[in-house]
Design a protein that fits this description.
D-Maltodextrin-Binding Protein, domain 2, 22% strand, two-stranded antiparallel sheet, Arc Repressor Mutant, subunit A
Amino acid sequence: MVNLEWYRTFKAIYKTGTLTGAADSLFISQPGVSLHLSSLEAYVGYKLFDRTGRKMIPTERGKVLFNAVSEPIGRLEDVEKNFQKSTEKLTPTISVGMCFETFQTTLEQYVSTLPFNLIISFGQYPEMLDQLDKGILDLIITPKKGVSPNIEHEAFSSEQIILVGGKNVDTESFQEVVRTKGAEHIEEWLKQEKWYGTTGDMEHLFQFWIMNFGHKPNFRPNYIVPNLNSIIRCLKGGTGLAVVPDFLCKNEIENGDLKLIWEGEKKLENTLYFGCRKKTNYQSEIDHIKGLFRKVMSKKDHVAQL
């Protein structure tokens, strides 16, 4: 089924003569414009433009299609503008991507207070970066920076990846091994314990293990649960180990519900970034969400220092 946005993008390319010009006029990325055009060309079954350098020259079929859709698309755009004018207050909708655990521990508590509509999307970081570049998402929270020139990244916090365990874990025997024996014995001690993992990304565990032991873990966690917050709740039962970001469990460690077992021989830290397109219609809404994240992170840092 055809997407009407493909026609709007086609019209913008026809009018501006370039993919960049169309992207600027529609406030989406150039890859997003290219995707819309290729999707429309695949749908109609023929080329709509010849690419000459940076210039997009409409083909004869492209001219015919433009003549057919230009007026109807223009009328739809007029209806959209008139509808917006007749509405007392147009409430914008912001699409934000992040991992599930980050949402639960930061933005979730503020959703009901937001003065605009919000769509939260969960996914893997490469996928979210791609969706941001294509205009599907307006803001992402990510520990990884993309390479698109259309996206800007702003560092706002950091997370340390740590080994935590239930309050009944025998940390004294572990610390004795750390003090008196080498990495091989440390690894063997850890492998004897019960481990928690998630159904999705195991990257934290892999990174931590590679940094400290030089290879990926050669065991499978005993318990696979839906997400990192589930791991934290399970560990409060008293036993087991897991590798998690510190900001997810600072309160539990402070309250004695969990133990910080080991930070590793070398600390594993990730920088957290806001990612957004350089051109957007929703700058004030994005700034509002950024402010909420900074507020939450500053509170967690204050708790950690007490």
